[in-house]
Amino acid sequence: RSSSYQRCPHLRRWIVKRGQSTITTEVGASPSPSAATVPNIATNRIVGRWLLGCSGLVAGAIVLGGVTRLTESGLSMVDWHLVREMKPPQSQAEWEAEFSKYQQFPEFKIMNHDMTLPEFKFIFYMEWGHRMWGRLVGLAYILPTIYFWRKGYFTRSMKGKVLGLCGFVFFQGLLGWYMVKSGLEEKPESYDVPRVSQYRLCAHLGSALLLYCASLWTGLTMLIPAHKMAETKRLMQLKRFAKGTGGLVFLTALSGAFVAGLDAGLVYNSYPKMGDRWIPDDLLAFSPKLKNFFENPTTVQFDHRILGISSLTAITGLYLFSRRMVLPRRAKIAISLLTAMAYGQVALGISTLLLYVPTPLAAIHQSGSVALLSLAIWVLAELRKIPK
C-alpha cells in the first residue's frame, strides 16, 4: 500500500487536501486562480469577535449621545456634511464663523444668548465627538464586511445579516440628522425651550438599541456554544419568561428617551411618591388623553417609574424561577448578574431623580440601561436551542 501511495500522486494530493482545516475553491477561470475560504469554526470566531467589537462601539455611541443630550450640546452643529465636518474649526476666524451660524437658531436666541465663544467650543466639541464616533461605527461595520465577504467568511444567511447591519448604520446616521433638524426649527407659537422632538429622539435611540442588540446577539451566538439541555416544559417556560423580560428591559430603556427629551426627570424629584401623592393630579392634564403618554413630562416620568419597577419585578421572578431548575453554570451566572444589575440600575435611577439629575449620575444611569440590556441578551444566548 505504501508503494502504491508513492506511485499515485493524485491519491496523495487528495489525502492532503482532505486533511486541511480550511477548504479552498477556485474562483473564476483565470490562469492563477484566487482562493476563497469556506466558513468554519475559526472564521466564525473571527466574525463573532468583530461583531462584539462593533456592538461595543455602538454602546459607546449610545452613552456619548446621552451625555451630549445631558450637556445640551446636540444643537451646536447646525449643518450636516458627511466628510467636510470631520475637520473642526481651526483658526479664530473659523470658530467665529461657526459661532455666528449657531447664533441664527432658536437655542442661542432663547436660551444661550449670553454664551461666550469658549462655552460654545465646549458644546461644539461634544456634538462633534458624537458625530465622529458615529462615523467610526460606520467604518467598523462596512470595511470589515467588505474584507470578510471577499475572503469568504460569511455563509449565505450571514451575508444577509451583515448587509442589514450595515444598512442600519447608514439609516441611523440619517435619523440622527433628522432628529437634530427638529431642534433647529423656529416655533413662534411655542413658549417651550428649544429641544429636539422627543419622538425623533426615541426613534434615534430605538434604532441604535436595535443595532446594538442585533450585533451583540449575532456575535454571542457565534462565540458561545449552545448548551445541550433537554427541552422540558419548565425550560420552555423559562425561555419565554426570559424573552418577555428582555422585551420589558428594552421598552424601559426606550421610555428613557421620552424622559430625556422632555426633561421629565426635573419634575417630581421625590420617591416613592410623586410629590405628596402616589398618582399626581396632572397625570392626564393634556387632551386628548393619549397625548399625555408622549408629551406630558409628569406622565412620561410616571410611566418610566412603572416600567422600571416592572422590569425589576420580572427579573427577580426570572431569578427565583431559575433557582428551582438545573441549568448550566454560565446560564446561572448570566441570570445572577442580570438580577444584580437590575437592582443597581433602579438604585441609580432613584438617586438621579432625588439629586435633580446631575449630569455624571444621569450618564451612569443611561449607561446602566445598556448594561442591563446586554445581560438580558446574554441570558437569552445561553438559553437558546442547539442549531439543527
TrEMBL record:
This chain's protein is named Cytochrome c oxidase assembly protein COX15 homolog
For this UniProt record, give its keywords in alphabetical order, as a comma-separated list: Heme biosynthesis, Iron, Membrane, Metal-binding, Oxidoreductase, Transmembrane, Transmembrane helix
Which metal ions or organic cofactors does this protein require, according to UniProt?
heme b
UniProt topology in membrane = Multi-pass membrane protein
Q: Which Gene Ontology cellular component terms are annotated?
A: mitochondrial inner membrane
Pfam families under this entry?
COX15-CtaA (PF02628)
Return the InterPro entries for the record.
COX15/CtaA_fam (IPR003780), HemeA_Synthase_type2 (IPR023754), Peptidase_S1_PA (IPR009003)
Q: Which GO terms describe its molecular function?
A: heme A synthase activity; metal ion binding; oxidoreductase activity, acting on NAD(P)H, heme protein as acceptor
Principal localisation: membrane
Q: Where in the cell is it found?
A: Membrane
GO BP, sorted A to Z: heme A biosynthetic process
Q: What is the source species?
A: Mastacembelus armatus
Q: Which reaction does it catalyse?
A: Fe(II)-heme o + 2 A + H2O = Fe(II)-heme a + 2 AH2
